[in-house]
Design a protein that fits this description.
alpha/beta; five-stranded parallel beta sheet; 6 helices; 5 strands; 51% helix
């Protein structure tokens, strides 16, 4: 089975109960392993509503969470340095690097945040 990194926006859509993304992910899960970066976990908890804590924990229990390794950190640093003049968030570079290092595609609704040609970006259906 292939691995798919769920970007933070996709995880948030799931938490907020957006049906199109839930249906899409159900279909995706038939042939892919849902994963995320530990960076997305931090981003979710930073903006989480109090009433979402149990739902958030349950959602994250259902995905493989990748830590930031040295290889991921170095790759993210290369992405950020290469961006020169373009606004590219370090968190997005770390998420993209996780996908590259782990051999996973990245599912996102924010395609413009991931201009790296080395990664496979899948547009999230909303």
């Amino acid at each position: 089975m292939s691995k798919v990194i769920l970007d933070t926006d996709v995880l948030i859509d799931l938490l907020r109960g957006r049906e199109p993304i839930r249906i899409f992910l159900r279909e995706l899960a038939e042939h892919s392993i849902p994963c995320c970066s530990v960076i997305s976990v931090a981003e979710i908890y930073a903006g989480m509503r109090q009433e979402e804590s149990e739902l958030t924990a349950n959602l994250l229990d259902g995905v493989v969470i990748f830590p930031v390794t040295r290889q991921i950190a170095e790759t993210a640093g290369h992405f950020k340095r290469r961006a020169k003049g373009r606004r590219l968030e370090l968190a997005d570079c770390l998420i993209a690097a996780t996908g590259l290092v782990e051999g996973a595609a990245l599912l996102t609704g924010n395609i413009k945040d991931y201009p790296m040609p080395e990664i496979t970006v899948l547009p999230a259906r909303r």
